[in-house]
């Protein structure tokens, strides 16, 4: 899988996720990453905001890295 196709698939996945969140919100379910982090870490302050930001960035990085390696190795 080329980098262009991989980037397109990732972008379409993000747009699809936003669409799904919109449908869920329309149905009355307010599910978002911000609500999940608030329930896990409580009231936002400097320390919890930093921890949440680092965890989110690391998880996104590793998901993209693993998915790209699998796509490259499957060719």
Task: Note down, in words, how this protein is organized.
The protein has 75 residues and is mainly alpha-helical. It has helices at residues 3-26, 33-41, 46-73. The longest helix is centred in the last third of the chain and has 28 residues, at 46-73. The model has no long low-confidence stretch (mean pLDDT 82).
Report the β-strand fraction as a percent range.
under 5%
> Main β-sheet, in a few words?
none
Question: Could you name the ranges where pLDDT drops below 50 across 5 or more consecutive residues?
Answer: none
Q: Strand-and-helix sequence, N→C?
A: HHH
Number of strands: 0
Proportion of residues in helical segments = over 70%
Structural class: mainly alpha
Q: Tell me the radius of gyration.
A: 16 Å
The gross shape turns out to be flat
N-end to C-end Cα span: 7 Å
Q: Count of DSSP helices?
A: 3
Give the mean pLDDT. 82
């Amino acid at each position: 899988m080329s980098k262009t196709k991989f980037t397109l698939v990732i972008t379409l996945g993000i747009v699809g996720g936003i669409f799904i969140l919109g449908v869920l919100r329309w149905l009355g379910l307010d599910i978002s990453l911000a609500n999940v982090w608030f329930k896990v870490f409580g009231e936002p302050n400097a320390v919890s905001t930093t921890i949440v930001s680092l965890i989110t960035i690391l998880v996104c990085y590793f998901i993209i890295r693993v998915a790209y390696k699998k796509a490259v190795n499957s060719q």
